[in-house]
Hints:
Elements: E1 17-26, H1 30-45, H2 50-54, E2 60-64, E3 80-84, E4 97-109, E5 112-121, E6 141-149, E7 152-162, H3 171-200
Antiparallel strand pairs: 1-7, 2-3, 3-4, 4-5, 5-6, 6-7
Amino acid sequence: MKLHDYLNIVPPQYTGNEIESIAEEEFENEEDARNMFITAKQRLLDVNNWNRIAGIVTATFQVIDNKGKEVDRQVKKSDYLRISIPGPGNKEGEGYDWVFVEDLIEFEKEGIQSTGFRVRPNENPFSVKNETAHFYSNEATSSFIITRDKLKVSSWIIDRNLLPNTEAESLVDKVRDIVVGVSAIAGFSKLQWQALAEGLIKK
């Protein structure tokens, strides 16, 4: 099932795999739907607490600003997300996987509200190496979207162009990225994103 991308933030699918997670809630009146959208938007942008929202053993996320500082605020465009996943870490990422927030958009017109952002695997911004520090290649993207369409509020998480990262110089990182990337494509990411999608709009 595909939802409408009012933000025009989801890129085309052209290589590798795609993972999509959707959750929806229907409300009896517009006030309740609007209130749920506001709550879901706050949860969406509160990335540091996603692991609590998802409610399962999952990755933890930390927003890092462009000066390299951990910040306790809503995510913004041009932030980095530092990700800690269960299992071995990425050596080049200093034990973490890294993504860059390359876009964040809000949209509103009569009866419709939508907020979302897109991230892409990135090098460790505080390393001298120009090497993607993530188990996916930098062709991959993840888009996170909350939408209210009249009385329906939906959360939509979609990964596109998923390929394991094979560019690591370190053999240990290369093997790790391939194993984790294949596992994520096979089901780990779907499990995590579906739990998050449902948690974002939980009443």
